[in-house]
Design brief:
six-stranded parallel beta sheet, seven-stranded mixed beta sheet, 15 strands, Quinone Oxidoreductase, Chain A, domain 1, alpha/beta, Rossmann fold, 2 domains
Length: 330
């Protein structure tokens, strides 16, 4: 094994943050239980924030971002994993203040590591990444709430984003009628590839459903990935006993609504976190993602790039102009 490995390093100089692919020595890595050779990593909005110096994500620099990684175990001090095992690491502190998946190697605590489930490759795991895990948890919670396909339509916001696109694809795969909300002009992709039956614009949705304290009960449930008045409109348009999950704040971190949908229709608002979930629950969701939830066209939802393409990909994500999720092949 070489004494160095390639990684996208973020360095700070007088308040300016610069990214560059560098050769990093193994001695610079955090010393943890499991050393993993990264085969693939996915690129997320949080990674773009980290690379741009957002102290709410990453406090100390220099730093290697990348909150998702999949690869093979090189060594495990505790013996909990054996050399060559295929594994996934998402969430916890990876890529935030622990050097992450934008390097060819990561060193992490054993409690962060999940064995790759049967039916999933390392590449497919990173086609999902944290976004896919979040989508899986969101769908799981709707099912747990009793929202079977016969109960009615499910509305999904941010349908071209990571969580929204995968949620739409999973719901369609398991028999739900999905209405997708999107601000981008790619209805053919959302319908023909992701499987939504209908696509509506953000403006159309809010003008119809976020006007009064309660709106027409057109949806059995919802998955919101953007926040703000979209989430407010979802809550107001749920059928009796409906539920909506929320996991994002791209539109806004504020929520202006009333108590009436909750006390008159018995609706539920379910917060979704995929970062600090117990490992056993993550393993359960990954098993669904490898089997029942797995879309047939998973690889078509991503664009594969090299580590050298990462700086440009991160800029595209920050601008909000990415058409597909990026997956890094190391």
């Amino acid at each position: 094994m070489s004494r160095t490995f390639r990684a996208l390093m973020v360095r700070e100089s007088e308040g300016v943050y610069n990214t560059a692919v560098e050769e990093v020595t193994f001695g610079e890595l955090n010393e943890n239980d499991v050393l993993i050779e990264v085969e693939y990593s996915s690129v997320n909005y949080k990674d773009a924030l980290s690379a741009s110096g957002n102290k709410g994500v990453t406090r100390k620099f220099p730093h290697i971002p990348g909150i998702d990684a999949a690869g093979k175990v090189v060594s495990s001090k505790s013996g909990l994993f054996i050399e060559g095992e295929s594994v996934i690491v998402t969430g916890y502190d990876l890529g935030m203040n622990t050097w992450g998946g934008f390097g060819q190697y990561i060193s992490v605590p054993a409690g962060w590591v999940i064995r790759l489930p049967q039916g999933l490759t390392s590449f497919e795991a990173m086609c999902y990444g944290t976004a896919g895990l979040t989508a899986g948890i969101s769908v799981f919670n709707l099912i747990k709430s009793g929202l079977t396909p016969d109960k009615g339509k499910i509305v999904v916001s941010g349908a071209t984003g990571g969580v929204g696109s995968i949620s739409t694809a999973i719901l369609s795969k398991i028999g739900y009628d999905v209405v997708a909300i999107s601000g981008k002009n790619n209805n053919d992709y959302i319908k023909n590839t992701l499987g939504a039956s209908e696509v509506i614009s953000r403006e159309e949705f809010t003008s119809k459903y976020d006007v009064r304290a309660m709106s027409a009960t057109d949806f059995a449930g919802g998955i919101d990935c953007v926040g703000g008045n979209i989430l407010s409109g979802m809550i107001k348009s749920l059928k009796y006993g409906g539920a909506v999950t929320c996991c994002g704040n791209v539109a806004s971190g504020d929520l202006a609504t009333s108590i009436y949908p909750f006390i008159l229709r018995g609706v539920r608002l379910i917060g979704i976190d995929s970062v600090e979930q117990p490992l056993s629950f993550k393993e359960e969701i990954w098993s669904f993602l490898a089997d029942d939830f797995k879309p047939d066209f998973l690889s078509e939802m991503v664009q594969v790039i090299s580590i050298d393409n990462l700086p440009e990909a991160l800029k595209i994500i920050l601008k909000g102009s990415a058409e597909k999720r990026f997956v890094v092949k190391h």
